[in-house]
Amino acid sequence: MPDQVDAETMGGVPDGLERLWTPHRLAYIEGDKPKGADAGCPLCKKAGSDDREHLVVHRGEHCYVVLNLYPYNPGHLMICPYRHIAWYTECTDAERDEMSTLTQQAMRVLAKVSGPRGYNIGINQGEAGGAGISAHLHQHVVPRWEGDTNFLPIIAQTKAVPQLLDDTWRRVSDAWREDH
Q: Which pTM does this prediction carry?
């Protein structure tokens, strides 16, 4: 691109890597909220709301399971404690244990519903750690299939998700009830 400066011009040594410049992401690094971000905690709102409307697929004693509103793949679940806590270290033993149990159950349910070939499971802690909602602890369970990633999110800032959230909610909720 003509308006970009190469490494040699800036006194560096070329490293052979291409760069995809994403200045729109600077808002996250600098702490600004993305446009349309909700002022309240969306995970607390889901904790006491209509399950179908807010995509909650299961409620436990200390935690609940919800579909991610912006899924990486169909069936992308989040396991959230009801309490508004930010850090894993703040979990009670009961909350920690139930998150683990619900993660296992989520994997069984997703295996039954859509047969993923793998999973990404993890907790992003703090804004610097990549947490989109850093004030309310949540663990992601993302089903994965061979070839489920492509150039669209990187180049076109578009994610192709082949299933509507309501269809995913129905399938996962039904399978969760059957798993008991």
A: 0.71
